[in-house]
Every structure is written in C-alpha cells, then in structure tokens.
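Notes continue from the previous slide.

Worked example: a multi-chain complex. Inputs as given:
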Amino acid sequence: MRVRSVLVAVGVLLMGYAVVGGSADPDLKPAGVLLFLAGVLAGHDLVWMVVLLTGGAAVARCVPGRHRPVARAAAISAAALTVVAVPLVLGFGRPPDNPSVLPLPYGRNLAAVLLLVAGAALAAGLAADRRGRPAAGRGRGRSTAGRKRSERPGGGGPPPAGR
Amino acid sequence: MRAGAFPSRLRSTRLTSQLGVALGVAFAVCFLTGLLSHLIQDPPGWFWWPARPVGLYRFTQGLHVATGLATVPLLGAKLWSAYPHLFAWPPVRSVAHALERASVGVLVAAALFQVVGGVLNVSRWYAPMPFFFTAGHYWVAWLAVGALLVHIGVHLPTVRGALARPAAGPPPGRLSRRGLLGGVVAAAGLITLTTVGQTVRPLSGLAVLAPRRPDVGPQGLPVNKTADNAGVRARALDPSYRLAVVGPAGRADLDLAALHAFAQHTADLPIACVEGWSATGRWTGVRLRDLVALVGGDPDRAEVLVESLEAAGRYRASTVAPAHARDPLTLIALRLDGEPLHPDHGYPARLIAPNRPGVLQTKWVARITVREPR
C-alpha cells in the first residue's frame, strides 16, 4: 500500500509540475496543447477505434476461422505501419528547398511493405492448409499448468504460467 | 453498454497488464532519453555533458525516436485492450473513482499526444500541432509520466495478480494472447526495420519508411535548415566575409584565407539530429581551442559562444561548454570530405563537435566569443 501511495503522490506532483511549468513556459501555447490533447483523444476513441473494430469484425466475417490468427497478426502490422507512414506518404512536411527531407517515394514503399505483409500472411495460411491442420488453436487444454514445457506446442501457444 | 458489445475473448486483465508493462518500459526509455536531450540543449547550471564518447547522443536520440516509433503498435494494442473500460457503467462510482478515471483520460490523451506528435515531428508536418512542438513534447512528457505513475499506483495489485495467474488457452480459431503479443512485436519490429536505417547506417538500405537517408543530401549528407531557409545565402557567399573571434586579449577578424592558414585538422563526426537521424561526415578545419588561444582564452577552461550569420531564430547561436571547447575534435569546419562546405552545410564555416545534438552544431559561423571560466 505504501508503494502505491508513493507512486500516486509522485505521479500527482509530476502532473502538477507539467501544468505549472507548461503554463509558465513562454514558448508554449497551453490552448494549442489542450486542443491537440483533446483532438488525439477524440480522434483515437471516436474514429480510429471504430475503424479498427470494423476491420476486426470484417476479418472475423470474411476469413475462415483457422486463418484468422494469421490475418489478425498481419492486420496489426499493416495498421501500425500505415500510422507511421501516412504523414510521409502525404508529404506535407517536405520543404521545396530541401530535397534531403522525406527523399523517398513513400506511397510506393508503403504499398510494397503492405504487400509483403499480406504475402507473408498468405504464405503462412497456405502452409497451414498444406499441413491440413489449422495454423493455431488446435484444441488445447485450458491450462498449461500441469504440462511439461516440452509437451507444449511451439509458437502460438498460451504464455507460460506462473511468471 | 450491453454485455458482449466487445466480443473478443482476447481482451483480459492479463493481456492488458503485459502490454502495460511493455509500454511502461518504452515510455521510460523515451522519457529518460528525451529528458537528456532537453538538458543537453538547455543545460541548467548543475548539468554536465561530456564530449566523449563521440556518438553517445547519436545513440540516445536514435533510441528515443526508434522506441517512440516502435511504441505505435504497443500503444494501439494497449488502448484496444482497455477500450471497453471507457463504457463502464455506472460511469462514476465515487469521488476516488472519478479522479482515477480522469487520470486515465489524461494518461491516454498524453500518451497519444506524445506518440502522434512524435510521428508528425519526424515527418516535419507541424500544421496539425497548434503549438511549438519541442516545448509541447517536453511538458506533456511530464504529464504522461505523472499520469502513468498514478495509473501504476492504482492498478499495481491487479497487474501483479494478472501476471501471476496461469493463463487460459485460446478458443479454437482465435488468435492466442501470445499470438496477439507476437503480432504487436512483429509490427514494432517491422516499423523499426523500415525506419532505423536513418541512424544505423548498415540498415539504411531497408529504411524504406525513414524520413531521412544518411547519404541523401548535398555532399552526401542530410540537411535540416538550408541557407535559403535561414536567410543567409547572400551573406555566406559574400567575399567580404570575416569571422570575428573575441576574447580576453582582444578581437581578431579572420577571412577565409586566414582561417585556412591555421593548422587544419580532420575529424569524422556525426550530425545527430533531434529527429532521430544521424550521418557521419569527414570534417576539416580549425580547432576551436586554437581560436580560443588566439584571443587569449584558456583553451582547457573556456566556454565559447558561437553565433551564426542568421539574424534571428531559435538556434542562431549555441554555447560550447568547456568539455567540448577543449576537445581536439571540436572544429570550426571549412571542408566536408575535402570539399568546401556546401552553403546548406554552413559555408563558409561551421561548428562541429563530438557528442552534441545537430541543432547545436551552428552553421554559417559569424562570431566566436570566448568567455572566461566562471
């Protein structure tokens, strides 16, 4: 309890320091910061999450059950890569007089990386089909606690117990 | 919100805890390396930063940006796993609960602010951010870390319990928790692989999504601020250019011929940008300590103010602390790879010192003021 109280107290102090220090910093426009804080929060919770959940539901509907784990893993990579690359693809930060900033064809590069991710997912799915078994979730027990490590299937298994 | 509105059985306290621990580590790395960068750029009296190892700042700032970029899938997965809590009913059970929810709101907003703002900053897209990025990123970092400590304090027993409990296996056809964590790790790995080559030279060929390439720019080196953007091109190319060196014994006005008449030294030093890219150049020029001695300063103890031809701007001048001013690798460089500096690299003369952020490596140097040790 003592540790928790200290954590909460120090955390509140640091938040207070941020508010006081930020308000006193002549370089900072607090209204702009508040606007961006609210903007990213609303953008994430109201827009991005809706897109993500819709995408997840589409994977659940369109992809056969045994291929869903691979499809979901690929979708996570695709979504994260897209978030990082979209500002580069749009290229609004590229100044006309400085060709060393954003020098690459990012739209083409992002498409190539996403194709690679999709290709890897497809290959993993086909390999699973060829083996004639689902890629993951092969009717395991609910707990690994009673099993020796060597008996557990490799990759895709549940995390080891009792960490 | 009705039961079953969020059908994924992947979500669990255990998954949220595991993601939270990983995210906590990533935030700690970003906070410490970011704080360090802030202290180096704006050092308080008690702060001391060495000139060696030469590439230490290159490493810490490269790590800052690489970790921040790799945090994108981690933060995304963490917020996804905790999203149903947003719709908890009743929304507020007590004053303490209301405060705890408010602190989570601050944490989520601050975490998104840092990660999204960082991604926009490295792509130099400032229009969506209605504030000065550096100051906003700095103060919101304190806000994020404070809210994170409160969050850890509140949820510590839950996290400990969830991580100690045996995990349930996934139902057939569903991604296991390990599968989801593996997906997040793979996403972070892909982001790192396609961007980190902007500072790790051997991986530059893979850096297809990096905002910079270490070999792209005038004289094979990237540029942050061009001569035109700084408004100095005409004055930099003016043959009447003189470098004013001012110290305890007086003042010297040196033209390019006079600068070339000094003993010339060559150093392989990186430009290490706060934006996370870095590139090494082979610089040749006059040792700063030789110029300090020229005007009667003590080369081993002096602090030096280096000013640019720029009329204004946040980075038009930088202070070189004694540790860097006395270092034999610290040069007023006149050449890059044996050629006169390109105007965008600071022609006619620029400062280059080991283990410093790129914004402090003042270009188009017009004046050097040697200050007596305090």
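Summary box: Residues 17 and 111 of chain A are 44 Å apart (CA to CA). Chain A has four helices and no strands.
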